[in-house]
Amino acid sequence: MSAQAETETGSAARAPAFRRVLLKLSGEALMGEREYGIDPGVTRALAKEVAGIRSEGVDVAVVVGGGNFYRGLAAAAESGMDRATADYAGMLATLLNALALQDALEREGADTRVMSALEVSEVAEPYIRRRAMRHLEKGRVVIFAAGTGNPFFTTDTAAALRALEIGADAILMAKHGVRGVYDGDPRSVSDAAFLPRITHLEAIERGLKVMDTTALSLCMDNRLTIHVFELAEGNVARVVAGEEVGTIIATGEREG
């Protein structure tokens, strides 16, 4: 029998396109149609999909934002709060999402660990790279909370950093209500064009709102591919299966 299992129709089942991925979730992605907080239905559906991917043998790590509860940069700008203090509050917001996602994943049967860049030993392990790698090797889904643990850095940068540290094959960026990357904001620019493929350098030079510049530069320097797609049912699994969903950001020759 071949290494790939035969389906009932006789065609070979497609093996996952990645060995290890890092899934970047914005806090807003967990809101669903709510104005703030967490939509249990969205979290449950996402957890079921991630658990399914893990059961197929793909290592999965997750970095989650906290924008559904609190945004450090916005709070600093609006209220005059010290930026570092506001950013630390934002990091704690990511921990709320990480714990909710952990609970949902474990209800789906996935062995899960939350690792925090800030010390909160009662609810999460401290982030230690070698321990994170060991968890992944044992088949556990690892959720990275509290960003990088430093103010002035976004969870986008945390996603790029952690993906490189754990040797991920790609970053999967699941967006709320957006198909992928456009040459303008589709919410305010009616004729914004969808971009199926771009390079990291193009995203930086054109000021496209994909990731912050620090995160894009890290990915570009290390030739780490980013898949940007809408957080809709089945999309995460489709990307892991190798389908071209949303926008692919990859290093081009002129970036090398």
Mean pLDDT: 88
How many distinct beta strands?
Answer: 11
- CATH architecture descriptor: 3-Layer(aba) Sandwich
Number of helices: 8
Number of domains: 1
Q: Looking at CATH, which topology would you report?
A: Carbamate kinase
Strand content: 15-25%
Radius of gyration: 18 Å
Largest sheet: 9 strands, mixed
Placed side by side, the strands forming the largest sheet appear as 4-3-5-2-1-6-10-11-9
What are the low-pLDDT stretches, counting only 5+ consecutive residues below 50? 1-12
Termini separation comes to 42 Å
CATH uppermost class: Alpha Beta
Residue share in helix? 25-40%
Shape verdict: globular
The named CATH superfamily:
Acetylglutamate kinase-like
Counting helices, strands and paired strands, the structural category is alpha/beta
How would you spell out the order of helices and strands? EHEHHEEHEHEEEEHHEHE
Structure overview:
Helices cover 36% and strands 18% of the residues. It has 8 helices and 11 strands. The chain has helices at 40-55, 72-79, 83-107, 129-137, 155-166, 200-205, 213-221, 235-240; strands at residues 20-25, 59-64, 112-116, 125-126, 141-145, 170-175, 181-182, 194-195, 197-199, 225-230, 247-250. The strands form 2 sheets. A 9-stranded mixed sheet has the order 4-3-5-2-1-6-10-11-9, with helices on both faces. Strand 1 (20-25), helix 1 (40-55) and strand 2 (59-64) form a beta-alpha-beta unit.
